[in-house]
Input
Amino acid sequence: MEKEPKGMFRFGLLGKDISYSFSQHYFSEKFEALQLNDYTYENFDIATIDYFPEVIANTAELAGMNVTIPYKQAVLPYLDEIDEEADKIGAVNTIKILDNGLLRGYNTDVFGFEESLLPLLKRQHKKALILGTGGASKAVKYVLDMNEIEVLFVSRSPKEDNEISYENISESIMKEHLIVVNCTPLGTHPAVELAPNIPYQFLSSNHLLYDLIYNPARTTFLKKGLEKGTQIMNGLKMLELQAEKSWEIWNR
Output
């Protein structure tokens, strides 16, 4: 059931350089369609996470927030409560402001990624490369782990045992890891010519390329996959699914 409007309800997106935001457009259209005239959604574009308490203190009637790059991990110390699943993942992308003013964090990226990924999986998809190690990559790993898909991170500065550098992606690694998920911002509008530096020549029709970016719909990363006959997916469906899960959390 949708919540009946009672006074003013404000929602928003916390992030940095987010003028392109999917969320603001999506929720503004949703509120209009549901005739929730007292509901608003705005961008909280802050230079550092240090400004987060100021946003909370100065935004009356704030009921919930989404969180995007680069604050999905940085926001954790500022929350009063963290949902068990979000705590396991180590990243939050949804915040509910409780009636007592406490902030509770959730991760709806997991739902969005899993629901959009599972229909694409085939028998050969047993191992995955995750490009990037930010907050979104943690939700991606969580989903792949749950579905018994072995994960190898690719990072510009590898620190953990299951991380390698881009320079160390060999032909055998590419042929063994038939899912490649881009969790970096490389290729996002307006710098659409950029793409992660992986050896695309070793892609095949057995591969699945999943890009968390949704603007443009076909990034350079995905286009390079198409040239090799790979299955591709952008991040739009994941965003829509996670947004609806956020809405469900805010309304319960």
